[in-house]
TrEMBL record:
SMART domains: DNA_mis_repair, MutL_C
Similarity-based family: Belongs to the DNA mismatch repair MutL/HexB family.
GO CC, any one term: mismatch repair complex
A Pfam entry, by short name: HATPase_c_3
Function, in words: This protein is involved in the repair of mismatches in DNA. It is required for dam-dependent methyl-directed DNA mismatch repair. May act as a 'molecular matchmaker', a protein that promotes the formation of a stable complex between two or more DNA-binding proteins in an ATP-dependent manner without itself being part of a final effector complex.
Keyword DNA repair attached: yes
Tagged with keyword DNA damage: yes
Organismal lineage: Bacteria, Pseudomonadati, Bacteroidota, Bacteroidia, Bacteroidales
Domain MutL C-terminal dimerisation positions: 430-572
Protein name, UniProt field: DNA mismatch repair protein MutL
Length: 613
């Protein structure tokens, strides 16, 4: 029997490695820009075509490479950043494994033009699928120019599963922003299809954040500082009033490297406890600086998951530092007894001279008799008790008439049964509202408690979604148009939303620079804050992605429904409650809201009997 185990060719091994390191065009941007920064570049320019499918070009003015280094850089596990295993625990660079360039070259056409500082000539290298096609001298600028073309040309399955251009470009923006946020000392620019997206000059950290996310964020950031023997923590946290339910800007960086760390996220959330509503998230940009020997970044191919040796003490330091930052900004209320404008309270001084005190005088009417009703001075007013019951009988009669009319209301017009056990098949009893939030009524299966806000969300969602599918919706023009500014990531998804937003009733005008004027809103939403509503729609769309048109429509419908639904605490008449329940039970899905929250809670007859045993 012949042997069956053999070594894989380098080309196949590199393609397998590329599956871990190079997942999409954004991965190429991340690796090449980080390499440029490791090479000491002061200026880095990124040029993208067709969201990276056609071209990803990174131009830097770093120290460049010699001809030999240029050839060696594309070999697997070739690196200049570590020489021994101990170097893994003293890392000060972004890349170190020597897998990135080999993985990129394995699945694309790559052209490298590079020249070392002080050299007269550079090198031009062309590769396709890890195979060197051309190698020659080249008169180029100092630094490197990497041009990656036709990504995944030799792995059709990988290329087929790439998302839409909008989604892939949004991922590129995400990686670019993560690098820019931690390298304010480097000038960075990003161009997509010859259009400038970012042009970030060298600046301070706070200014870099503002340049990326807009000037409005400046007033919402609080300085975060903590210094200890274990770790130095710096950065910014958001004011509590800037927290939002989705789309919050939350970043952790350690020694200049972006990371994800749910455990440290809980520390910040605990610091905001009782300061922000449940379900809302604060903004934060937190930078950790500590001994590289106390962390391990070599546990994940993308190096975004990092293991800390002293997680628990750092957790305590982070939580305390965040609390202190919030307290200094008066985000946490406190009592200050040293206020200059305090009210002067007079103090009694018994040794003060020329002070005369007089005892208070009490005047009493000695002739007053409380039992005399005919006193000329104090005559008790007579109350006509008959007025208290005036109309009582008429009101009781009208209530009985109303109950009779409700009981006689045709059952088949009130509801449409759509539940397998027909739990809603018989409902002719009156409804009661509890604390302005719940509607209580008896059904065939028992006592039903209905959340009125969620019920209305379900009803409006079905209505808006039907309007979107039929491309119909009335628009109400606003008296004073409002201007909304989007970040680059938010603006990238707008093209997939504009048609549906217009069909449902939004009237938006593009003002350029990712700004829009809101000229009209869907009818019925005149009392809703348009800026908040539109941002909520965009944030939800970013969460669900832009691949499936139906999902985008559901996202828009849900945002509109939540904005227009009746608020908890609103008092409803019997007719309104009856109409709400009838419309809810005619919905294809009346038990849950579109985002999976319970609308109806049933208390069965058996459960009621057990409570009274």
């Amino acid at each position: 029997m012949s042997d069956i185990i053999h070594l894989l060719p380098d080309s196949i091994a590199n393609q397998i490695a590329a599956g871990e390191v190079i997942q999409r065009p954004a991965s190429v941007v991340k690796e090449l820009v980080e390499n440029a920064i490791d090479a000491g570049a002061a200026n880095v320019q990124v040029n993208i075509k067709d969201a990276g499918r056609t071209l990803i070009q990174v131009v830097d003015d770093g120290k460049g490479m010699s001809e030999t280094d240029a050839r060696m850089a594309f070999e697997r596990h070739a690196t200049s950043k570590i020489t021994t295993a101990d170097d893994l625990f003293s890392l000060h660079t972004m890349g170190f494994r020597g897998e990135a360039l080999a993985s990129i070259a394995a699945v694309s056409h790559v052209e490298l033009r590079t020249r070392m500082r002080g050299s007269e000539l550079g090198t031009r290298l062309v590769l396709a699928g890890s195979v060197v096609q051309e190698s020659e001298a080249d008169a180029c600028n100092e630094g490197c120019i990497f041009s990656v073309k036709n990504l995944f040309f030799n792995v059709p399955a990988r290329r087929k599963f790439l998302k839409s251009n909008e989604t892939e470009f949004r991922n590129i923006i995400t990686e670019f922003e993560r690098i820019a946020l931690v390298n304010p000392q480097v000038s960075l620019s990003l161009h997509h299809n010859d259009t400038e997206i970012y042009n970030l000059p060298v600046s301070g950290l706070r200014q870099r954040i503002i340049n990326i996310y807009g000037k409005a964020l400046n007033q919402k950031l609080l300085t975060l500082e903590a210094d200890s023997s274990l770790v130095t923590i710096s950065g910014f946290v958001g004011r509590p009033d800037s927290a939002k339910k989705r789309g919050a800007l939350q970043y952790f960086f350690v020694n200049g490297r972006f990371m994800k760390h749910p455990y440290f996220h809980k520390a910040i959330m605990q610091a905001y406890d009782q300061l922000i509503p449940v379900g809302e998230m604060p903004n934060y940009f937190v930078y950790f600086t500590l001994d590289p020997a106390t962390i391990d970044v070599n546990i994940h191919p993308t190096k975004t998951e990092i293991k800390f040796e002293n997680e628990q003490p750092i957790w305590q330091i982070l939580m305390a530092a965040t609390r202190e930052s919030l307290a200094k900004s008066s985000a946490i209320p406190s009592i200050d007894f040293d206020v200059e404008d305090a009210i002067d309270i007079p103090v009694y001084n018994p040794v003060q001279e020329n002070t005369n005190f007089k005892a208070p005088q009490i005047q009493v009417n000695s002739g007053y008799n409380p039992f005399e009703t005919s006193s000329s001075s104090y005559k008790r007013s007579e109350f006509d008790w008959a007025k208290l019951y005036k109309g009582f009988e008429e009101d009781r009669a009208s209530v009985q008439l109303e109950q009779t009319s409700l009981n006689e209301f045709p059952q088949e017009e009130l509801i449409e049964t759509n539940v397998s056990d027909k739990m809603f098949a018989e409902t002719s009893n009156p409804c009661y509202q509890y604390k302005g939030r719940y509607i209580i009524t008896s059904l065939k299966s028992g006592l039903a408690l209905i959340d009125q806000h969620r019920a209305h969300v379900r009803i409006l969602f079905d209505r808006y979604l039907d309007n979107l599918r039929q491309q119909k919706g009335a628009s109400q023009q606003v008296l004073f148009p409002e201007i909304i500014e989007f970040s680059v990531a938010e603006a990238a998804i707008l093209p997939t939303l504009l048609d549906d937003l217009h069909s449902i009733g939004f009237d938006l005008s593009n003002l350029g620079n990712d700004s829009y004027a809101i000229n009209g809103l869907p009818s019925g939403l005149e009392n809703v804050a348009p800026l908040t509503l539109l941002r909520d729609i965009v944030d939800r769309a970013i969460e669900v992605g832009s691949e499936i048109k139906e999902e985008i429509r559901k996202t828009i419908a849900l945002s509109l429904a939540k904005a227009a639904a009746i608020r908890p605490g609103k008092s409803l008449s019997n007719e309104e409650m009856d109409h709400l329940i009838a419309t809810l039970f005619s919905s294809p899905e009346s038990n849950l809201t579109p985002d999976g929250k319970t609308i109806i809670s049933m208390l069965t007859d058996d459960e009621l009997e057990k409570r009274f045993k």
